[in-house]
Write a structure and sequence with these properties.
The protein has 117 residues and is an all-alpha fold. 59% of the residues lie in helices and 0% in strands. The chain has one domain (29-115). It is elongated, with a radius of gyration of 21 Å.
Length: 117
């Protein structure tokens, strides 16, 4: 019996190597993506995307800020509470007003520099 179980486990491991997409951990929301930044980072990104008008509904209509945040929450399986209060606090920053955007810009610049080397 132990040999049969071991063979079954080895078979599953082989299948996972051949088709890793079938073994992704899906959360209750159906998302396989995990946000690795802070909640403030995600809110900063939501503000930038929303104000730039880069994400719209499939009908072409503009998204409300709440819809933008809700979409990001679902995509990254994260919960952001008090979005408007937090949005106001983020936008009231005096120093380093957009740390995530600066980090993204620096990462992009580094990637460009590496491509020229």
């Amino acid at each position: 019996m132990a040999i049969v179980m071991t063979e079954a486990e080895l078979s599953l491991i082989d299948k996972e190597f051949d088709h890793p997409e079938r073994f992704l951990m899906v959360t209750p929301t159906g998302s396989v993506y995990k946000w690795m930044g802070t909640n403030a980072d995600l809110k900063e990104l939501a503000i930038a995307l929303h104000n730039a008008g880069l994400v719209r509904k499939t009908t072409g209509e503009e998204l409300a800020f709440k819809e933008m945040v809700s979409g990001l929450e679902q995509h990254f399986n994260i919960r952001i509470s008090d979005i408007y209060e937090r949005k106001a606090r983020l936008m009231a920053r005096k120093k380093n007003i957009a740390p995530l955007l600066e980090k993204l810009l620096n990462a992009y610049r580094e990637a460009v520099q590496k491509s020229y080397q």
